[in-house]
Amino acid sequence: MTDTRQRSAEDGRPGGFIAISKRDLVAALIKEPAFADDAEREKFHRLCRMLGSIFHYEYFQALERLRDDYYYFDPEIGPHGAMDGALIERRYADLVRTLDAVLKDADFSAVPHGEIGDAHRRRTVLRVEVKAPLDDFREIRFYRRGRHIEPFEVAEWFGLRRRKVEAEVYDDVVLLAAVRPPAEIGSRRELRALERHKMRPGSVLLKCFRNIAESDLNALFPNVRVVMSSADKFVLGLPAIAGGIPILINIYTTITVLFLVLGFYLGVGAAVADKDMKTALAALSGLVALGAFVLRQWVKYQRQSLKYQVELTDNVYYRNVNNNAGVFDYLIGAAEEQECKHAVLAYHFVRAAPSAPRADELVARVAAWLRATFQVDVAFEAADAIEKLQRLGLLARRNGRQGEELVVLPLDQALARLHRVWDDFFPAGQPAAALSQKL
User: Fold this and answer.
1) Residues 102, 332: contact at Cβ < 8 Å?
2) Which residue from 171, 267, 323, 391 has the fewest beta carbons nearer than 10 Å?
């Protein structure tokens, strides 16, 4: 059976995101026949919990760094005028660097800007046209995680016909939009425009979304607005021209008489004949008809714009997961869980192998097990998992006949090693100043 949510991206290769909960993953591993008895299963379960606790502590430090760096760019906090430009630039570089690292650990990857433009030109799901002025921002970044194919129903021929299409959909999308600082904003008009969109100059907007079609990324910009397509302009404009021309022709032939009558009533003209009064009334009626016609076309335009704005809101608003500082907790939790799952899988399949495996053998075994157990295709990132287990002292590399081989500590020794790692986080008798530096 093929899981449509795990179908590969445009290059045909699976991604590294493991779309399985850590609890389900560990529960499935414990059922494997690699354990001699229930006591070994319990030890492995304890090892998984300890790995989770260690990663949780380490990522808490990353969360604190993100919060500290973002404090100066949070749009919900007032501007920090006392900080000089050089210090603000350093803080911004620190924020982007830490955020990039966390997103990478959570299996997010950056979306090239050229890909965003190409996808928008192929609009598949959101049929309205949108415009987002990029001049308001100093930098915009999109990050994605996970892809799947999803069916959609789109309307054609002004809603008279509907057809089903398939589109690439990103499981998770993170947007970073850095608003230009006050020194780079040249006019009060630009400042007022930013205020209308609730964007403080110099702030950094962060947004996280779920299940966003590849072609809809442009609709996620903070200052996005709906614009009329060429087809809509034609549909609204053609009746306006066809209905307005006869009215203008009638008014044109009588407008001079209308001015003569107005001049008479204002006391600046001579007397007018009865037939001129009738002509003036006809001209006035024509002007009223023209005004009503213009108003009717304007109402049609506004109604169509509102309809498209509602469609844009329905397509994006309900997919918004979190915003600004709240994004950090979501990302840290995602990164922490992904790292723990990678480490647990690597330890188990190195330990369960009949002989010390190479890195490529580990990748193949993990991928095959995930496919057989959960029907998902994952490009397991063995190098990162190996590095983490090696840093914790659970794994070693040794030279074998066919290249570098991997070995892990037995469960009892591994648990003892993780206890020492945890104790080193809070060593007895360490001065409070040294502990505060870790935090």
Assistant:
1) yes
2) 267
Distance CA 426, CA 432 (A): 10
Helix 38-70, helix 85-105: angle, nearest 10: 160
Q: Which of 82-96, 147-161, 412-426 has the lowest mean pLDDT?
A: 147-161
pLDDT digit string, tens, across residues 256-296: 555 555 554 555 555 555 555 556 566 566 666 666 766 77
Range of the domain at 137: 108-226
> What kind and span of H or E run contains 175?
strand 161-179
Question: Phi and psi of 427, rounded to 5°?
Answer: -65, 140
Place of tokens 């939009």: 177
- Asked if residue 298 belongs to a domain, the reply is yes
Q: How far apart are CA 273 and CA 259, in angstroms?
A: 14
- Taking the C-alpha atoms of residue 108 and residue 330, their distance in angstroms, rounded to an integer, is 13
Does this model's pTM top 0.70? My answer is yes
Predicted confidence band of residue 114 (pLDDT cuts 50, 70, 90): confident
Q: Which of 75, 115, 118, 105 lies closest to 326 in space, CA to CA?
A: 75
Same domain flag for 236 and 218: no
How many CB atoms are closer than 10 A to CB 300? 14
